[in-house]
Specification:
Blueprint: E1 2-10, E2 14-16, H1 35-40, E3 44-48, H2 49-55, E4 67-71, E5 85-89, H3 93-102, E6 107-111, H4 113-121, E7 127-133, E8 141-142, E9 153-160, E10 166-172
Parallel strand pairs: 1-6, 1-7, 3-4, 3-6, 4-5
Antiparallel strand pairs: 2-8, 7-10, 9-10
The protein binds NADP nicotinamide-adenine-dinucleotide phosphate.
């Protein structure tokens, strides 16, 4: 199984404002920068409960008919994901990954700051695709957090776009 991250951040590394607002990200995801192609390559998503709560505020369910696993240790009302294929899981990331692998998932998209950090710490993420939006917001929810050890990355490619988006792909080395 390949596990990837595809996420937008401010240049100072935040994925949302402290209150969860995403207003600093370009509307509608900004100019095309590979998200649709990436999504087409994904079999399933794992998102944190806080990201789930954010997407429930969107006008429509953003993941189409992709299988979405919401991680939470508390009861959730999944029926709020109108039209989505959603289930809930909890527990160690390695167990979640082996469960999904046994059900035929080959490419998994992990999203949400705390969730990404957990999967990184567990050594489960192979690809990071980070698109920096040209803004500093000073404070917010960070993409990355503390680590028990360094995680070495190999730079694969960087593309820049006329609107100022800069997309960089890294592969996790160890
Ligand atoms: N810029 C972007 O592209 C982008 C992308 C995604 C999200 N965001 C934003 O980021 C914010 C959310 O990120 P976040 O870091 O605050 O949180 P998050 O990762 O979305 O959610 C964290 C929550 O997920 C649950 N969780 C995670 N791992 C778990 C596990 N192994 N077992 C059980 N539950 C687990 C826990 O929920 P419980 O507390 O319920 O147990 C935890 O509190 C939102 O504002 C969202 O809009 C931005």
């Amino acid at each position: 199984m390949t596990i990837s991250v595809f996420i937008g951040t401010s240049v100072d590394g935040f994925i949302a404002r402290p209150n969860g607002d995403l207003d600093f990200l370009p509307p509608g995801g900004g100019e095309p920068h590979g998200y649709d192609e990436f999504m087409a390559s994904v079999d399933a998503l794992v998102i944190g409960r806080k990201t789930f709560e954010t997407v429930l505020t969107f006008a429509s369910w953003p993941y189409g008919h992709k299988r979405v696993v919401v991680l939470s240790s508390r009861p959730l009302d999944l029926s709020a994901a109108r039209g989505g294929i959603v289930e809930q899981m909890a527990g160690p990331p390695a167990e979640i990954v082996s469960n999904l692998a046994s059900r035929g998932v080959h490419h998994l998209y992990v999203d949400g700051g705390i969730t990404i950090q957990q999967f990184l710490r567990a050594g489960l993420i192979q690809r990071l695709i980070i698109t920096r939006v040209p803004v500093l917001i000073g404070d917010g929810i960070p993409l990355f957090g503390t680590l028990p050890r360094d995680i070495l990355l190999r730079h694969v490619a960087t593309q820049h776009y006329p609107s100022g988006l800069v997309k960089t792909e890294y592969h996790v080395v160890v």
